[in-house]
Write the C-alpha cells for this entry.
Amino acid sequence: MTLDYQAATEKYEPTLGLEVHVELNTNSKMFCSCATEFGAEPNTQTCPVCLGLPGALPVVNGKAIESTILIGLALNCSIAPYSRFARKNYFYPDMPKNFQTSQYDEPICVDGYLDVEITTEEGTKVFRVEIERVHMEEDTGKSLHVGGSTGRIHGAEYSLLDYNRAGIPLVEIVTKIIPGTGKYAPQVARAYVTQLRDILRSLGVSDVKMEQGSLRCDANVSLAPIGSGKLGTRSETKNVNSLRSVERALTGEIERQANRLEAGERIIQETRHFLEESGLTRPGRSKEQAEDYRYFPEPDLVPVTPDAKWIEELRAKLPENPADRRKRLQAEWGVPDSEMGSLVNAELVDVVEETIKLGAEPTRARTWWLGEISRVANEREVAPTSLISTRSVAEIISLITSGELTDKLARQVVEGVINGEGSPKDVIEKRGLKVVSDGSALMAAIEAAISAQPDTAERVRGGNIPAAGALIGAVMKATGGAADAAKVRELLLKHLGQG
Amino acid sequence: MSSIHLTAAEMASALSKGEVSSVELTKEHLDRIALVDGKINAFLYVDSEGALTQAEAIDKKRAKGGELSPLAGIPIAVKDILAQKGIPTTAGSKILEGWRPPYDATVISKLKAAGVVILGKTNMDEFAMGSSTENSAYGTTQNPWDLSRTPGGSSGGSAAAVAAFEAPLAIGTDTGGSIRQPAALTGIVGVKPTYGGVSRYGVIAYSSSLDQVGPFGRTVLDTALLHEAIAGHDERDSTSINAPVPQVVAAAKRLDVKGMKIGVIKELSGSGFQAGVSARIAESLELLVAAGAEIVEVSCPNFEYALAAYYLIAPSEASSNLARFDSMRYGIRIGDDGSRGAEEVMSATREAGFGKEVKRRIILGTYALSSGYYDAYYGSAQKVRTLVKQDFEKAFAKVDVLVSPVTPTTAFKIGEKSSDPVAMYLSDIATIPVNMAGIGGMSLPVGLAEEDGLPVGLQIMAPLMQDDRFYRVGATLEAALLAKWGKPILSNAPDLAAQK
C-alpha cells in the first residue's frame, strides 16, 4: 500500500534545507571586466581571466561585494569584517580553471533569518527560516552535450562549451536546517523562495528569473518518524525552475521518501533531478561518499575587509522589506487578506501601488488589475503589465471616478487600449464612448421607459422607491450602458415626484 | 668591437650618445646567441624578428628626439613562464607545447612600453619546479662556467643567458629561490623583490602566494634599472602592493653603508655550507665592516622548519594552479581519437604532458589539501609561515638587512642530484624563508670558491618594501670587491666560444 502526501506527513516529519543561487546583475563578471549580457553569441564575452588562461589573475568586482552585502543585510545577517575566497577544486570541461573561486569557511555574511508567511486553512502561519550563510562565487561555463539519449556528458558524441557564463557573479544563500514545518514543508519552501526573490528584486541586485537560471533553488529534504527527534538521510533536488516546481518537487520527494521508508528501504544520499512534466525526481549523483573539493584560501585574492562605515551606509540604503511593505499597503488600502493574497500571487502589488500613485482610486485600481486586465492577460497567456500601462489604467479609473465613464464603457476603453487603438483618450474619441449625461437625451429615454412600463411608474409614484430599479435598468439598456446610473435615478425619481 | 660585454647602464649611455644603435646591439646579441647557445641551451625560443622590429622602432624614435626610458633599446631575455602575445610560451612543459598566448603579461607590457628589446624566452624547470633546469621538458641548460654543471634553477636559462653575455638583462621568477640560486651559481646579480612589488599578471602560476617576478643583471645598478622598469602596482593583480616603488636605482648608486647594521643569520651559516662558500661570505662581511657597517649575529630559530613547510604550501597551490592544464582549451591533447571521453583525454594528456617532478608535486599537494589531512599539512605549514615571518620581524627590529649564503654549495654537476629530490630541495634552504615571509632578497656574486673556482653568492635580505636597502648594501660591496680583485667576478668565467 502506498502512502499519499497526507498520510506521509501524518507519519513522517520533513526537515528542509534550501540552497538558492542568485546570478547578480552586475555589468561585469565576478573577477574580470567581461560583459554579462544574457543570451549573447557563445564565447563572445570572455577574456584570459574567465577562460582561465595560464597566467591570468582574478580581481574582485567591487559591485558584486556591495550587492552581496545588501543581500546579507536584507536577510538580517552579520557582515564579516574579514572574509576570504577559497578554491573549490574539481575537474569539469566547463570549469576553465578546474577550480571554482568561491567562499568556504570564511563567508561574507552569516547568521541571518527570514520570516516566511504562508496561508493555510487554519489561517496565516509564520515560520522563521534561519540563514546560515550568504557567500560569493563565480558561475561555470555551459556545456551542451550533443548526441546520446540523456543530454548528459556520458554517452554524448561531442560537447560544445560556452564560457560566456563562466565568471558571472553568483551569490549562494544557504539556510540552516528548517525543522517543524510538518505538512506545510513544500509551502514554506515555496514561500521562502518567493519572499527571497521579492527581496532580491527590491534590492535591484538580480534579474531573479528562475526560468533563465538567474535564480536557482536546490531543495534538500529528509524525513524522520514524527516524534523521533532524529534527522533522516536527505536528498537534494536540482533543476527546480519555478516557484511552483519548488512546491511540487518537495511534495513529490516527501511522498517518495515516505514510501521507501514504509517499504523498509533506506534513503540514498544523492542529488535528484526534478522532472517538470511528471512532478517526480530521478536520481542523479550519489553523495554517499562526500566529494573532496580540497578547499583552501584563494592565494590570488586579498581578503575582503569591508569598512564598517560603508556597511552602515548600505544598511541605510536598504529598501523596505517587501513583506513589510505589503502589510503596510494592505493597511493603507484596507484590503482583506484574501484579496491581498490574490494581488501577491498575481504579482500585481507593485503595479497597483503605482496606479494608485498616479491618482487612481485604490479599490478600483485593485479590481481593474485583478479583474478585467488579468482576465484578458490569462486568456492571452501574457503578463498583465505587458497589455496596458499603469498610466492608462490610472487615467481610465479617474474618468470613472469623475463620472465621465461607466464601468461598462471603461471596459471598452481598456479593450481598445489593449488592442492598440491608442491612449484611453484616443479610444474614447474613436469609439465615441462618452457617458450620456445630457439631460434631454436622458429624459427622452426615461419617458420612453415610463410609457413602456406604466404600472411600475405608478408604483414608484405611490412611494415604492425600489421599484424604480426596473425603470433605471430599462434606461440603461436603451442607452447602451452609456448613461450614468446615478444621474438616471435622480432624474427618474424627480420626474415621478419622488426627488 | 662588440658591445655585449658592456653593462646595461653602459649600453644605455652608448645608445644615448649614438655610439651604437639598438639594432646593432640587438644583432650582436642575436649573433652571440647563435654562437654559444648551442652549448648552454639557455633559450627555448629566439624572436629575432620581433627583437629587430622593436630595436628599429626605438632607433627611429631616438632619431626623432622622442622621450625614451632608461632601458630603451637594450636587449633582454625573458623566462618562458611569462605570457607574451603571439610568442610560444611553455613554462618548460610539454603540456603547453605550441601555445601562443593571446595576451601579454603585465611585465611584458611594461618592458615593451619601456622600449626594451625582448630577444626571446629562456629555459626553466617545468612550471618553475626545480633548482637546476634539469626538469625542463626541453633539455637542461648548462652553466657557462662549466658545461658539466647546472646553472641552478628554476630560472636557470635566464641566469645562464646573462652570464654568457647573450643578454645584459633577464627576467626570472622566484618562488623558493629560483632567481637568487641560479644568480649565485652563475656569478651574476639576481633579485627577488618584495611579494606584490612586481605584478604576477600573466606569469604562469606555480605557487601563487610565493611566486614573484624579478630581475637579473651583471651589476647591481643594471639589476636596479630593470627592477624599477617592471615594478609597481597593477590593478590586474589583486596581490600587488599599491604603494610607491622603492627607490632602488638611487640606492644602487649610493655606495655607502656607514652606520648600517647587518645581521648574520646564525641558522644559515657554518656546518652544512661548503667551506669555500663560507670563506667568501666571511670575506664580504669584513669588507662591509671596513666600509663602516656593523655586523650583528641574529637567530631565526624557525627557519629550520621553512623548507618542510614550503614543500607543503607550494605543491598544494601548484596542485590547484596546474589543474587547468587539461587539454580542453590550449596546449597538447592526447588520445582524442573519438573513442575516449573528456575525462580519459584529460588524464592521458596530463600523463604525457607533465614531467616527473611536476607529477610528484601535484600528488604531494593534492594529498596535503585532502580532507582529513588539511590541518596537519597545509594548516601546520601556514603556521610555520607565520613563525618564519615573526623571526624576520624580530631580526629586522635589530638590524637593517640580513645576510646569508644564497646556496650551501657552488654549482653542482648535471645529474648529481636529479635522482634525489630531497638533496635537490636542500639547495634552496637559505632562500625559501624569504619567499615564506614575502620580503625581498638579492643574490650578489662575491667571489669564487677556492676548492672549485666556481661563483659564490651572498644573499642580502630587507624588510617588506625596503628593497632599496639590499641594493645599497649590494652596490657598496660590489664596488669594494671590484676594488679588491681589480676586475668583475664574471670575467673569470671561461671563454664559452672556445669551449666544446
